[in-house]
Amino acid sequence: MSQITQSQVEQAIQGYTDPYLNSDLVSAGALRCVSISNNNEIEVELHLQYPSGFLGNGVEQMLQTAIENIDGCQSASVKISWEVLENKSQNSVDAIEQVKNIVAVASGKGGVGKSTTSVNLALALAKDGAKVGLLDADIYGPSQGIMLGVEEGTRPETIDNKWFVPIEAHGIKTMSMAYLVTESTPMVWRGPMVAGALQQILTQTQWGELDYLIIDMPPGTGDIQLTLSQKFPVSGAVIVTTPQDIALADAKKGIEMFNKVNIPVMGMIENMSMHICSNCGHAEPIFGQDGADELAQRYDTQVLGSLPLSKYIREQSDAGTPVVAADDCSEVSMMYRHAARHLAVALMHQAQNRQAMPSIEISDD
Ligand SMILES: Nc1ncnc2c1ncn2[C@@H]1O[C@H](COP(=O)(O)OP(=O)(O)OP(=O)(O)O)[C@@H](O)[C@H]1O
Predict the structure, then answer these.
(1) Is 51 touching ligand 1 by the criterion CB < 6 Å?
(2) 99-356 adopts what CATH topology?
(3) Atom 19 in ligand 1: which residue has the minimum CA distance?
(4) Is 113 a pocket residue for ligand 1 (Cβ < 6 Å)?
(5) Residue in 55, 43, 97, 112 with CA at minimum distance from that of residue 272
């Protein structure tokens, strides 16, 4: 019996391409350990750096079979593990302890579906096994509580009069200004007050260990948004837009705002990209077409996903069970889940690059 070599095993593993890494797992550097006994009993350990719980036993089984098919193989076992990499912000704000990635979800224009996107991305990451938090920083229309089905009037518990305990909903930890204010304290605060209050909420919440903290930012690219971007230790941003010209022009301002404060834009979500007729299934790009792709190309970023204008998306959010929580395998839920995985991989690449680079401090002076 001839001895099987590591390169034969690697070749078998390379038959599978990870759709999000766009690479086989050996080239992606995921091969942690190969052990081949004199008897050709083979054990392989692979380790990924983004939430790949969705691979489940299926890919392990498939790779195992590919290895078992090597001539002379007696037995094969494949184990895939994962852990999200820490991705610190490059601004000078202190990181939040135990929070690995902070993602700001922003839009240049109001009403494009930023909050809907934030909550479904957060839920999608959690469905793949990540520990996820969601901060509703949209002071103009804090809607995450309603979308997550948190009963009106629910208040977070506090510890030592200093810490807020986030409210858990559908498997994610959430905090919102709406949990703290009453109808008699309306949002009349202006710029610095708002930024200060939100920063306090962010840093005084006991998030615990989180792979991702998603921040649903206030819409627009004015002073408040700029201040928040500077005060939050954001690892990367996501811009939500519709394909409409005016929304795209605002999305461009959003990208430029993040560039100004040295926050990398991980990608764009094109929302309401198509209307699909619920009667005949005809798809129509009522807000235009291809704009987000062109913008992404121009700014050297990517479109993480395109979501249709869908009654199901709206109804589920209104009912307090966003689509990804309601049915994580529905067509639109899968669109959010694909987008979330592309986002996770973009953050992972950025963290890997940062680890490989010497750190450079950039200041305004
Ligand atoms: N893809 C979609 N299909 C159908 N309805 C959607 C979609 N995305 C969002 N909506 C609906 O559009 C409305 C606005 O969405 P959302 O609150 O997420 O937008 P926003 O950009 O956060 O708004 P604001 O600027 O007020 O914060 C909501 O009623 C939401 O349910």
Answers:
(1) no
(2) Rossmann fold (3.40.50)
(3) 113
(4) yes
(5) 112
